[in-house]
Amino acid sequence: MTLLEVDGIDVAYGDVQVIWDVSFSVSEGETVALLGANGAGKTTVLKTICGPLAPSAGTITFHGEPIGDLEQDEVVPKGVTHIPEGRDIFTESTVKENLRLGAYTNPDGMADQFERVYDVFPRLEERRGQQAGTLSGGEQQMLAIGRGLMSDPDLILLDEASLGLAPVLVEDVFDAIERINEEGTTVLLVEQDVNNALHIADRGYVLESGRLTLSGDAADLAEDERVAASYLGG
Ligand SMILES: Nc1ncnc2c1ncn2[C@@H]1O[C@H](COP(=O)(O)OP(=O)(O)O)[C@@H](O)[C@H]1O
Ligand SMILES: [Mg+2]
After folding, report:
1. In angstroms, what is the span from residue 42 Cα to ligand 1's centroid?
2. What is the pLDDT of residue 166?
3. How far apart are CA 36 and CA 45, in angstroms?
4. Which of 17, 128, 144, 229 could bond to 96 as cystine, CB 3.0-4.6 Å?
5. How high does pLDDT run on average in the chain?
6. How far is CA 162 from the centre of its chain?
7. Which residues of 50-86 are buried (b: 16+ CB within 10 A; e: fewer)?
């Protein structure tokens, strides 16, 4: 069953249009990868889904309900969580406090979600009293994902979760995403790391200069030389 449906969206910053007629869907339980070179418009698409931007044309529906014009604080309670590029954690607060803030729409489920997050990321439980700004890059990424999970989302939007991490941590982060998906959360991810992304994804879409140019099963895209070319071509 379709969870997220993006239908023919255009998106602009002021007068400058950067997304043209983009359509794709994500079904319940899937992991879908949105791929493309730097500047292709991946972050813009995620921000349009989760609230800060609105499409100038087209529609976005979630659970069959239009969400394109909603703000972020209206989208989170509906079950969409966004883990932005660059993590965006509260560096002065502790790990536990960061997680608690992620549950602001879900106070009743907070204890269960703490348990789930600590189960996926035991490292965060060990360091729950530590100031978030003193965590390593990989731990900060785990915290950002963990905080997103605290709202008990149906759909998690992940923007460049592996960027800047050492290879061993990249593997940990992808393992965690895979596990979160196996536990029932649908995932839409944007990644520079195409190989890892297509390894955990069911399907993928390729965005080039604001337009979708290719889509298919992850295994087929992983073999398709046009995917590599789209990264080089920009
Ligand atoms: N706040 C902004 N104001 C104006 N242009 C922007 C802004 N953010 C991104 N852009 C432009 O939109 C295009 C797509 O950017 P982005 O969505 O960040 O791409 P990606 O995430 O694929 O690297 C780029 O040309 C970028 O320069
Ligand atoms: Mg981006």
Report:
1. 8
2. 87
3. 12
4. 128
5. 93
6. 11
7. bbebebeebebbbbeeebbebeeeebbeebbbbbbbe
pLDDT of 35-46, one tens digit each? 999 999 999 999
Q: Give, in degrees to the nearest 5, the angle at Cα 44 between 41 and 49.
A: 130
Q: List pocket residues of ligand 1, CB cut-off 6 Å.
A: 13, 16, 18, 36, 38-44
Q: If you take atom 18 of ligand 1, which residue's CA is the nearest one? A: 43
Q: What's the Rg (C-alpha) of the chain?
A: 17
Q: Residue 39's closest CA among 163, 193, 211?
A: 211
CA torsion, ordered 136, 90, 158, 180, to nearest 10 deg: 70
Q: Which residues are found with C-beta within 5 Å of the ion, ligand 2? A: 42-43
pLDDT band, residue 226 (cuts 50/70/90): confident
Considering Cα of 87, then 90, then 92, then 93, what sign does the dihedral take? negative
In the chain the domains, ranked by start, together with CATH numbers, are 2-79+153-233 (3.40.50.300), 90-148 (no CATH)
**And the tokens for 94?**
């502790």
